Amino acid sequence: MGAKIEKRPVSVCLLSGGLDSCVTAAFAREAGCELAMLHVNYGQRTEARELKAFNEICDYFGVTYDRRLIVDIGYLKAIGGSALTDSRIEVPKDTVTVQGIPITYVPFRNAHLIAIATSWGEVIGARYIYIGATEVDFSGYPDCRRSFFDAMEVAIEQGTRPETNIRIITPIIKMGKREVVKEGVRLGAPLELTWSCYENEEIACGRCESCILRLKGFREAGIKDPIPYEEGIGG
């Protein structure tokens, strides 16, 4: 008899199309997982551009269409309360929040994302949920703390079938952008396909908090950011 072939564990990877989620998916690949990519439209300003990045990254990783799920939860836009979903709230420029909760925080967003990932994961027999949350950058987001994901794991255990056993994996939770960039390069993640800008969809503004932190990370890693920025920014 031939050797038994071990089945690769299925991992639902939350893939926004940004730098952090792309590198997180690369960690799941390195761990030998079968990738199932989940993308959520929630009424964010750059919804179309993020979706484009999602599909291009899926293509790069060779993820089949039956292992891609795109979900719309536009009610988060209707709820509002964030500069990412409410056009009446200006996206902060040329600053990084150091105290308090940033206005770009989308209230309880990650709970919605984890719930969707769990529902899909239970159906397809997933063992893990990978999410690119970090406590180092955007530490003001309360739903990006490891303690939050520990609590969600308890909720998953309580609210799913007895045979369901899904863990939430946060491989970059203690990394700053410099480390994320360096790990992305090491893992062969397609950083050139990612999109991080909060406001623009064609050329990154380079001035929102997300762009500032991304550019700083690439600069500190000694690597040129491969995406386009408005004239005079980037490099």
Structure description:
- The protein has helices at residues 19-30, 47-61, 75-79, 109-124, 146-159, 177-187, 209-221; strands spanning 10-14, 34-41, 68-72, 128-130, 167-169.
- The protein is of the alpha/beta class.
- The protein has a five-stranded parallel β-sheet with strand order 3-2-1-4-5, with helices on both faces.
- The chain contains seven helices and five strands; from the N terminus they run βαβαβααβαβαα.
- α1 (19-30) packs across α6 and α6 (177-187) packs across α7 (209-221).
- α2 links the parallel β2 and β3 (68-72).
- The chain has one domain: 3-Layer(aba) Sandwich (Rossmann fold), CATH 3.40.50.
- The protein is 37% helix and 10% strand.
- The model has no long low-confidence stretch (mean pLDDT 94).
Structural class: alpha/beta
Tell me which CATH architecture applies here: 3-Layer(aba) Sandwich
Weakly predicted, low-confidence segments: none
**What Rg, in angstroms, do the CA atoms define?**
17 Å
**Overall outline:** globular
SSE order, one letter for each helix or strand: EHEHEHHEHEHH
Assign the CATH topology: Rossmann fold
H/I helix tally? 7
What is the spatial order of strands in the main beta sheet?
3-2-1-4-5
Q: Classify the beta-strand content into a percent band.
A: 5-15%
Distance between the termini: 58 Å
Largest sheet: 5 strands, parallel
- For the residues shown, what is the average pLDDT? 94
CATH-assigned homologous superfamily: HUPs
The CATH class is: Alpha Beta
Count of individual beta strands: 5
